[in-house]
Amino acid sequence: VCLTGCSRDVMVKIDQICHRNGVKFFSGDVFGYHGYMFADLGEHEFVEEKTKVAKPNPGLEDGPEAKKAKLDSSETTMVKKRVLFCQLKDALAVDWSGEKAAAALKRTTPDYFLLQ
Q1: How confident is the model at residue 55 (pLDDT cuts 50, 70, 90)?
Q2: What is the four-CA torsion angle of 13, 18, 24, 27, rounded to 10 degrees?
Q3: What share of the chain is helix, strand, coil (3-state, %, to 5)?
Q4: Higher pLDDT, 83 or 114
Q5: What confidence score (pLDDT) does residue 57 get?
Q6: Domain segments of the chain: what residues?
Q7: Positive or negative, the Cα torsion across 18, 1, 12, 111?
Q8: Which InterPro entries match (predicted)?
Q9: How far apart are CA 7 and CA 90, in angstroms?
Q10: Which is it for strands 70-84 and 43-54: parallel, antiparallel or unpaired?
């Protein structure tokens, strides 16, 4: 489900319905130069392709080339990962008065507060 231009209450209600039924939920909007996007994918599994790092050749001298790890694009491994997404109501219900929240506030974009 994709929503745009909806009120906060409508977005929270539809996200709860989607989350209960295992339906992926996206919401976003733009206000001039600012915008937001929220995704609740529930329990999301995916595969990430990682490039193997080649070990430096022991026959090389001690120069800068020997110290740099090189990427070997011909060898890759597939890593399966799982992410649990939070619901919109939980993302909007952050308590900003605690010490932990003060540190997170510095990393939080001001656009987060557009939804508030």
Answers
A1: low
A2: -10
A3: 30, 40, 30
A4: 83
A5: 59
A6: 2-54+73-115
A7: positive
A8: Ubiquitin-activating_enz (IPR035985)
A9: 16
A10: antiparallel
pLDDT in tens, 33-54: 888 899 999 998 889 888 877 6
Q: What mean pLDDT, rounded, does the chain reach?
A: 82
Four-way CATH pick for 2-54+73-115: 2.40.10.220, 3.40.50.12550, 3.30.1490.100, 3.30.230.30: 3.40.50.12550
Contacts of range 82-87, beta carbons closer than 8 Å, 24 or more positions apart: 82/43, 82/44, 82/45, 83/41, 83/43, 83/44, 83/45, 83/46, 84/42, 84/43, 84/44, 85/39, 85/40, 85/41, 85/42, 85/43, 85/44, 86/40, 87/15, 87/16, 87/19, 87/40
Percentage of residues in the chain having pLDDT higher than 70: 80
- Return phi, psi of residue 81, to 5°: -130, 160
